[in-house]
Amino acid sequence: MPLDLFLAFLAASTLLFVKPGPAMSVIVANSIGQGMRGGLVTVAGNVFGFVLLISLVALGLAWIADTMKTWFDWIRLGGAAFLLYLGATRLWFAGKAGLSGPQPTGCLFRDGFLVAVANPEVILFLAAFLPPFVDPNRPAAPQLSILGVTFIAVSAIIGAILAVTAAQARSFLSDERLVWLDRISGGLLVIAALWLAWPR
In angstroms, rounded to a whole number, what is the distance separating the alpha carbons of residues 142 and 6? Predict the structure, then answer.
């Protein structure tokens, strides 16, 4: 793969992940509410979801998206309802992380995973996003592997930076400000839910 094509893909992937969205909202919210561990476990779940979606695209199974179009709205609305539940819970327990207790690792991983796969448009996006960066004069499989690994690495690195930053911010804030931080993160989740539920 030509270096300029790879660098263009790297830049495009980075811009994609620094853009605010449902995944970023969940990572930040769990980092604020559960600390660095909570954020990083959520990132791991999110990355695993992307691994699954990229694997489907790389294996040429994007046709699944075509055959399941009738289910897309239900999957999307289910994901939106889940995000809304997370946001409402965050708002309800604002500043009371100790009362709600630490969440099990499985629940935090689930949050990250579900937010990655709850939006069925992601697989369509990946199916359209990857091919333009493949050099048609070279074998496609090795190039798709490189692009997939790069995409996953970028999502993991940016997610980890978000998680660590949000967790560190919490440790320096007073109790009163933590309440507002929890409210903001809960609000972000509600906004992400509305964004996901908005008719396409």
Answer: 13
